[in-house]
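Okay, any thoughts on this one?
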Amino acid sequence: MSGRTSSQVTRLVVGEAVLPGFSPSPPLMSDAATNEFLWHFAFNRLTDINERMVAGREEIYTGHQFASKAATPDAIPQHAVDVYVDALRDPAALRANF
């Protein structure tokens, strides 16, 4: 630490994910449960087609991701999901998201 106190931290995001190039790729389609949970890793890495498939349907993709990847399906309140969905309606934000 550089002598800073925790009162100086204004935001913190902590995530856990398979990191392409650093982590071995999970075996997709090895079994239904694994594929159901990890399919989006490959989908997110596609070029262009994922954006075209999600554009105009951001609430379907984002809602599913939050409901199926959070601790419980209702762990993230709908108004918070709506903030993400609204942001992803911008094509540049959707591209950055993938």
